[in-house]
Write a structure and sequence with these properties.
512 residues, alpha/beta, Nucleotidyltransferase, domain 5, 5 domains, 6-stranded mixed sheet, 4-stranded antiparallel sheet, 16% strand
């Protein structure tokens, strides 16, 4: 039989004093006090019968947990190993629990959690900071933060920048990864997050990065980045920047960064590309909402989010999340952005155009017309060509078809590739194939491809024959009348009369 701790004894004595005062002093009934306090009537009668200090005793010895010395030693070994790693790569107590479960541990998570907490306190890696709890109404606030994680993409290690969002009332999370934290990534991340949540909150709580806040004065006044402010104005969201070095003001998303680092990014993830990683992160964001809400333990995050979603404003028209700059097209028909170069049509060489950088693509605009669009690349010092942009230049320099950088590895339709191989065997064949490419610019690649397929089928690969096939495809087809009797009929039978010809000749002489 074991007595309770000193704190338990004090608490028990205070409870007994209150109960005796309510019943013996105020005259309240035992049933009413039991109903109000939740203490059984039998226990209350004991308090009333014995005026001495009640003692807490366990009638049965506690059942020992299954965290044996063997698994405690294993946890110490794993914890010591993690201390050699960077803080972001260390495993959480939950991850350590999952590890020893695979090694045969059959106990619950709680003793592992307590043991790991003790290890952290003894090693000096635990935290003892105190914070003021915050309260957020439904649909009121969204918190945002960045984190840096390491993943394997296509077998190569990459450092990805993960945008974290968290609705403060329901705790609904959303994460999306990028290869940098540039302005266009911020815009794209917010657009994706609002679509994921299906509505717009009234405020967003952020840090003070240069992509969102360009200046913080001594009086804590902020000047927001114009493009970020355009995003906020579009969705009518109030941006709230935290006090510098006061991360507790958006403590929910700060905790989410640490939690998801251990939950999602440890051990290191491996995917084919960034799109596959983000598809998986979106799926995991939905799954994480099935956890119990920290403040309302009888409901899940997803249940409370369904209520909060009704308080969010409708999305409306999506924001066009690009960053624009004016650039000059080089003589090589290239424009540069973020250390890479992208081609534009040759007629714009030497002119100034607008380059719009999105998170996943590059769009080049002249006036109000889109003249080029490329997939966004994150390499360094690489040129990305669209061969059709350079085809008009081949009219003057057909020899560049063989060695021109834009045409290296150019994948043409199969029939056109066969005709190209046939032409390039002969001297001057490059000139004929350039004429064929120019016809594709004039009439469209689909028409020329169809004509080339017919030429290969008919084994007539000469350029005049292909031009004839193109003309046949472009000429309007006159469908015959369904009823042959509907054709116009002659009313007078024509007769041969040479004098009519002589009369016409005489009339011509007079006119001359």
């Amino acid at each position: 039989m074991r007595f309770g701790t000193e704190e338990e004894q004090v608490l028990l004595m205070e409870t007994a004093m209150k109960i005796r005062g309510w019943i013996l002093g105020d005259g309240r009934s035992i049933r009413a006090v039991a109903r109000e306090t939740g203490i059984s009537r039998t226990t209350i009668k004991k308090y009333l019968k014995d005026p001495e200090q009640p003692q807490y005793r366990e009638r049965q010895p506690r059942v020992g947990h299954k965290l044996s010395a063997e698994f405690e030693a294993r946890l110490r070994e794993l914890f010591k190993h993690d201390l050699q790693l960077r803080r972001r790569n260390r495993r959480t107590a939950k991850k350590l629990y999952e590890q020893i479960v695979t090694e045969g541990y059959t106990g619950s998570y709680s003793p592992v959690q307590r043991f790991v907490r003790e290890l952290r306190q003894t090693s000096g890696t635990g935290t003892g900071d105190a914070f003021i709890p915050l309260h957020f109404a439904a649909g009121d606030a969204l918190q945002f933060d960045w984190s840096e994680e390491y993943v394997m993409l296509g077998g190569v290690e990459h450092k990805v920048h993960v945008a974290h969002f968290r609705l403060c009332h329901s705790r609904k999370p959303f994460v999306v990864a990028y290869l940098n934290e540039k302005q266009e990534m911020v815009l794209d991340a917010f657009i994706q997050a609002l679509v994921f949540f299906g509505g717009v909150p009234r405020r967003v709580i952020i840090d003070n990065p240069k992509t969102m806040v360009t200046y913080v004065s001594r009086s804590k006044d902020r000047i927001f980045h114009p493009r970020f402010l355009a995003l906020m104005n579009h969705y009518v969201i109030e941006p709230v920047a935290c006090t510098p070095a006061a991360g507790w003001e958006k403590g929910q998303v700060e905790n989410q960064v640490q939690f998801l680092r251990g939950e999602l990014f440890t051990p290191r993830l491996a995917f084919d590309d960034l799109d596959a990683l983000n598809d998986w992160l979106r799926l995991r964001s939905e799954e994480l909402a099935n956890r119990l809400h920290p403040d309302q333990q009888d409901r899940t995050i997803a249940d409370i989010f369904s209520d909060e979603q009704r308080e969010l404003r409708p999305l409306g028209r999506p924001f066009d999340g690009y960053v624009e700059k004016t650039v000059r097209v080089r003589s090589t028909c290239l424009v540069q952005y973020d250390s890479n170069r992208y081609s534009v049509p040759s007629e714009f060489a030497g002119r100034h155009v607008s380059l719009r950088a999105y998170a996943d693509r590059i769009v080049v605009v002249a006036g109000n017309e889109i003249i080029a669009e490329h997939k966004r690349h994150f390499t360094r010092n690489i040129s990305y060509f669209e061969p059709w942009h350079y085809v008009p230049l081949l009219d003057r320099k057909p020899g560049a078809l063989r060695d021109g950088a834009p045409f290296v590895g150019w994948e043409l339709p199969k029939a056109m590739e066969q005709i190209k191989d046939h032409y390039m065997r002969d001297k001057g064949g490059d000139r004929d194939f350039v004429d064929l490419l120019l016809l594709a610019l004039t009439h469209g690649i689909d028409v020329v491809e169809m004509a080339c397929e017919l030429a290969v089928e008919q084994r007539t690969l000469r350029l005049p024959a292909i031009i004839n096939l193109i003309n046949q495809l472009l000429e309007p087809v006159i469908s015959p009348l369904a009823d042959p009797h509907a054709y116009p009929q002659l009313t007078l039978r024509p007769e041969a009369d040479c004098k009519r010809y002589e009369a016409l000749c005489a009339t011509g002489e007079v006119v001359a």
